[in-house]
Amino acid sequence: MLLRPLSLVLPVALAIANPFVGRSEVTALQEACNKINTTLYDVIKACNAFSINVDSAHAEEVFNLSKTLQSRVRDASEVVPDALDGKWLCESYTNVSSPGLQLSEDFIALKKDFQSVDLLNDTCLLLQKSSKGSALLDRKLLDATPDSWKACVQRYQEISENMTAKVLEAYCGHS
To answer: With the C-alpha atoms ordered 32, 38, 41, 45, is the resulting torsion angle positive or negative?
Structure first.
């Protein structure tokens, strides 16, 4: 769940670099990605605070921000244009893969903390729903990627899928 939104922190040039993308589509995708980026960093900060202060209030903050992130991802999937610049998309995935992996590992480490405040089952359900929304966005991004760049994008999406499976396994007992 958390790695996939990280992969969406796309630079402004992502859509601008492609002359086939209409200006309104660029603006909509940029705005959606900016909202994802802002919310993502809010989730990161909340996770850090929760790891230090294990209580219901901090757990609910992480949970609620994760729900907001899920909503932002859904919104982004609705504005992906028909064509994207594959080079920029691949570079975006490259730039965020390491932080995304670390964030997913950190989130896995919070499992016992969520369990201690009785939010483990709710978090599992949220992660499952988020995973489906992220998979939809990944498909749309891949569909909008030129064939010459699909292998690169797929490679990073597979990394994301593997980390998502690990997070789901940790929280839900399956992927």
So the answer is: negative
The per-residue pLDDT for 56 is: 97
pTM above threshold 0.70: yes
Q: pLDDT band at 70, cuts 50/70/90?
A: very high
Cα separation, 134 vs 167, whole angstroms: 14
DSSP secondary structure letter of residue 39:
H
Phi-psi region of 118 (alpha: psi -120 to 50; beta: other; left: phi over 0): left
Alpha helices, H only, 22-55: 23-52
Q: Which helix (H) or strand (E) holds 5?
A: helix 3-6
Q: How far apart are CA 112 and CA 45, in angstroms?
A: 18
Q: Which residues contact 45 (CB under 8 A, 6 or more apart)?
A: none
CB 110 within 8 A of CB 48: no
Question: Looking at the predicted structure, is the pLDDT value of residue 33 above 90?
Answer: no
